Each structure stands twice: as C-alpha cells, then as structure tokens.
Amino acid sequence: MGCSATLLPSPPPHLHRPPTFKPLLNRRSLLFLSTTLSFPATTISTSSATSPPPKPDTTITERVYLDFSICPNYFTNRTLGDDLSNCSDSEPIGRLVLGLYGNLVPITVSNFKAMCTGTSGSTYKGTLVQKIFPGQFFMAGRQGRRDKGEVKPPLELIRNTETIESKAFILEHSRGGIVSLPLSENDDDDDLKLNPKYHNVEFLITTGPGPVPQLDSKNIVFGTVLEGMDIVTTIAAIPTYKPSENIRQYNGFAELLGDGRAKTARAIWNKPQKTVYISDCGELKVAKPTLSPSLP
C-alpha cells in the first residue's frame, strides 16, 4: 500500500514579500509641523525675583557737638565738686560735630540730643570718657555718681522702644566715626538698670581704622562724626590700663566661683590713664544754605 503526499497549493507570490512600512510623516509634514507648533517659552517673572530691601534712611536731621578736654589734677585734687567742667587747668582736645539719623531712630536721637542740651534733667557735660578700646571704640555717658565723673541718671526722657525693633539694628559699625547706643557693651551698674525709670544714655564712637563687626546687630547706630575725626584718633591713642594675662585668668576663675569682686576689679580695665572728659556739649543750629543766583 503506497503513501501519497498531498501537495497544498502554494500561496500567491505577493504574500511572500516582507511587509513594508510607510512613514506616517513625510518631509513636508515635518516642515509644516515645525512652523505651526509652538512651545511655551521659559520666562522669569520679575515679580518672583527677590528685590533688594530698601536702604535705611540715614538723612542727618540733627547736629550736636561734644567738646573734649583733659583735667590733669582730677585724681590728685578732688576739689572740683561734682562738675569736671570746673577744671581750672583744663587742656582742650577739640570738638566733635555729630550728625544724627532722626528719621531712622527718632527716639534714640531725641534722647541723645536731650542729654547734649541738658533738657533731660541731666547732661553729658562734665562727665568722663569711661573706656577706650584701641582700634575699636571709646565709651562715655556711664551713669552713676557725679563726683566720680559719671552721668546723673536722667528722669525726663522718652522710653526707648527702639531697643526691641529690628530696623534699629540694620546699620553696621563699618568704619571709624560711627556713633552708637551700646546695649551689649553697656556697663551701667545693675542696680541702676533694675530701676523702672532707667534710661540707657551711654554711647560709643568707633575709632577705626577698620570696622568693628562684633558690635553689629547688638547696638543701635544712630549717627556719625561729621567733623573731628582727628579728635577721635587723639582720644583713641591715650594710654589705658591693661591687665596682665595672669590677672585676666585669675579674674575669670574668681567670676566662675561667683566672687562678686571679679566684676568690680574689671571696672578699671581699659580705663584711660588720663582724665578725658566732655567739657561742653549742645545742639548746633544749622542755617539754611543760600540760594544759587538766578539766571538772567
């Protein structure tokens, strides 16, 4: 019995060809799409960009003066009473003219001017420069006893609420001749500070030549020296009492043990070895500048 193979009919020839794919987009279509399709452009909104903060208003609204002198016999002869301005053999150093930023910190400026004019019930006149830190600043206006050359605590001043306002601490102690209200550096006695009627009127002036960054954001800059930077330099050059390293270490150890005498001992550190004092002070009335001649 034989086997016979059944041959299937072969498919038509066109079915053996591999499939061909036609591009969905031809050259003309791509060109058309490239000219008609638009993509969103990346833009930076000017409103989202951070704008710089406005500059502090350092317009000089008030001018005051401070005259500085040296009284050679103050510590040897206490016959001057409670006013150093009565020193008969006073040696004048010179005058500082200060410009004050009344728009920026009006309360601080008003109180300082009142201390210069004496309308506060107290005055800087006849009081000592208490501390000198060479290359940094000097301080005056410490409150206490007049017979020790300190400022009589003022009673007729406005409560200074600017000491807790952030805008009052914007300006930096960037150079010599900066006038500042010391908060971190204030060394008035604690019993004075605890008085509800206490007003901080101590002030410092930077001596240069460089900035004093450790004072920034802690003390209120309220003015600048307009005239007399040579006087500032002269005061800064006066010798001061500088404790030895052993004394500093002993003092620090005593303070660590809670010995109250440590702070008392530090009171003479950086004190000038000459009696530098404010012999006079007041407000300067500046006349309006003359007008330019009119053109014909």
What does this structure look like?
Belongs to the cyclophilin-type PPIase family. It comes from Nicotiana sylvestris (Wood tobacco). Its EC number is 5.2.1.8. It catalyses: [protein]-peptidylproline (omega=180) = [protein]-peptidylproline (omega=0). The protein is built from 6 helices and 8 strands; from the N terminus they run αββαβββαββαααβ. With about 300 residues, it is of the alpha+beta class. It has an 8-stranded antiparallel beta barrel. The protein is globular. The termini are far apart. The relative contact order is 0.18.
Task: Give the C-level CATH assignment of the domain at 61-238 and 270-285.
Answer: Mainly Beta
Q: Please summarize the sheet with the most strands.
A: 8 strands, antiparallel, barrel
CATH-defined superfamily of the domain at 61-238 and 270-285: Cyclophilin-like
The percentage of residues in β strands lies in 15-25%
Name the structural class: alpha+beta
Shape: globular
The CATH architecture category of the domain at 61-238 and 270-285 equals: Beta Barrel
Taken in chain order, the helices and strands follow as HEEHEEEHEEHHHE
Spans of 5+ residues with little confidence (pLDDT < 50)?
30-36, 41-48, 289-296
Q: What is the β-strand count?
A: 8
Mean pLDDT: 82
Task: Return the CATH topology of the domain at 61-238 and 270-285.
Answer: Cyclophilin
Number of separate helices: 6
Radius of gyration equals 38 Å
Distance between the termini: 142 Å
Physical arrangement of strands within the biggest beta sheet? 1-2-7-5-6-4-3-8
- Give the helix level as a range of percent: 10-25%
Protein name: Peptidyl-prolyl cis-trans isomerase
Organism: Nicotiana sylvestris
Keywords: Isomerase, Rotamase
InterPro entries: Cyclophilin-like_dom_sf, Cyclophilin-type_PPIase_dom, CYP28-like
